[in-house]
Automatic annotation (TrEMBL):
It holds the Pfam family Creatininase. The lineage of its organism: Bacteria, Pseudomonadati, Pseudomonadota, Alphaproteobacteria, Hyphomicrobiales. Transmembrane segments: none annotated. Its cofactor is Zn(2+). This is Creatininase family protein. It comes from the Bacteria. It comes from Microvirga terricola. Belongs to the creatininase superfamily.
Amino acid sequence: MKWEKLTTLEIDALDRSIPVILNIAAIEQHGPHLPLETDARIGAHFLNELDARHADKVLILPQVVVCASAHHMSFAGTLTVQHTTLLAYVSDILSSVAAHGFRNIVLFNSHGGNQAIGQVILESFGAEHPECRIAMLTWWRIATEALLQVQESGFGGVGHACEFETSLMLYIDPASVRQDRVPGHSHVMTHDWANSDLLRGGKGALFRTMAEISGGSGVVGDPSLASAEKGSKITRIVVDSLAEIVTSLS
């Protein structure tokens, strides 16, 4: 169910244990071949698929689409807000949900730059609302082992506007992909201890802008290996895992 599609009486009639899900996404550059809305489209896609399967078991909030993308600001079109702004804004939305008596809340993340502040939102909101249970799920982290079996590129081949994100957009909306502009592999490595990609974390974290990580291309990974078929597989894997986790909360 979509929160904004219901009437006040219909919201009021719902069981307050139903999981309420908020997607935090991004409007930012995705290389020469993907639209700025890529992270938002992917987040909405997964939740639409979840809703199609479990419409009476989940309640989906309107997306927060402009989030933490300061590391992309050297690329035209990127929109961002400060971490403190996002913390306050998302916490206020979730506090509204809690004020209406809903007690199972899921923060669903579809943008890497939201990961750190999302954890802060989780911990601060959870401490302030002991009557609620709040979880944070990032789509590529909830099914890592299965997604590794889909990946064709080697280490560093999935990251941003990459094999996975391009595959998902080819599946969701192929007309939005500028297929004549799909580049090859791009990922500027750094210290061994800090190297990572979408599915494999490093031993530590080193701040670099997206321009630095991508060598100026805006792409981290290998979108040349993308396909709609792969996007379909990724969708099934992620939504299977998401459904299992979310329905366990009710």
